[in-house]
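Pilot study result, target chain (411 residues):
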Amino acid sequence: MHPAPTIAVKALLFRVMLLACALALPLAAQALPLQAVPGQAVPVQAVPVQAVPVRAPSVQVAPEQAAAPVVAVVGSHAVEALMRFKASDVKFELRDLMEILRDREHEGWVLAAYPDPKTGHPLIGAGVSLDLPERPHPQTDPLNPHDFIEPSSAELWQAAGLDPHQLEAILAEYDKRLVAWSKRGFRRKIGGLAPEITDEEAGRLLRVSAIQAIYNAKGYCRDFDKLTAPQQMAMSQLVYQMGVNLAEFSQFLALINHDATPPADAGHGTGSLMQLAAMTPSLASYNPAGTGLHQTEPGQLDPTLPNPAPLTRSAFASEADYWKAVQTSLVESQWARLYRARAVAVIAMLDPAYSRAPAVAERRVGAMLRPAVVVRRRVGRGGVRQRGAASGGGRGNHAPAKAHAAKKRGV
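Predicted structure:
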């Protein structure tokens, strides 16, 4: 017998058993729940977890402004209304309206945030606001069941499918630049700003903004669906350019909605409906409420006589005389005089014959619309003078300058 090998085998077996126990204990610890021992902290083993992308919550809050939501609430009425838009909702092509609003020739397509010249609020793309809150806009016309939507900038950003964190970053950078440059200095640098959004993203933002304008245009005009395609586009442009301020054009809204008596506050209008008819004699045949409106003397109308040519609602989109009166209510507004080129294009679209001859319609409006006059004061031997600052101007505007030059030469 050789006892040495037996002892060696036993020692080897013992080592194998120890190794097996050492390997089994960690597995058993993972399989069994940890038991808390009084007075002793329970160790927690860190388990690596694969990162899974998650969607941002419905409301994001800036750390320094805990009360100001940055991301729009998913499923809000405004966002849902914008997402429900269909091409069949209007008679014109949405891309045609977007191309007009894009306005690449002027300050109409900037791919970085820049300040509004009046308010200083940040704009981007085709002048889309970046920091507007959601605003209430009640429907005050009891005969129009269509409501208004005034979503926040964050909601428009969400409806366009853009990243809300990108909006946060753009606004933060805008605030820094505004403090460092001031509003005037900021605007001087617009042409050299590096893009903060792509051309495609700006197009998506413009699209939802144009849809909002179309939606609200229906709230301003009861018979929007009966308008021609150019007339619908004109109404949508007015809403896009003026926003809630269009409600102040009460004379225009009274005419386009067939109201016989406009509100007492004429806003940016041109006076009463009677005054409009006096300026536009063709309005004498306009009958919005079934009672005649007839011109008895220049500047006066008799509302008691029967109307020989009543305007029916079915023909209102093609009645030339009626639409000339509607155009006149805008031509006499301050908006049209300050933004003459833009106003001529928009007001001309209200002409029912615009589709047949757009250039003719624009020439007619251009002849009606006087350009804005800028008063320039200059004191000299001729005293204080006023000169027109319009494009080209009339010959009468240049006569005083020639007379003054001749007087200086001793003629």
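One observation from the pilot: The CA atoms of residues 34 and 43 lie 9 Å apart. A full batch analysis is planned for the follow-on phase.
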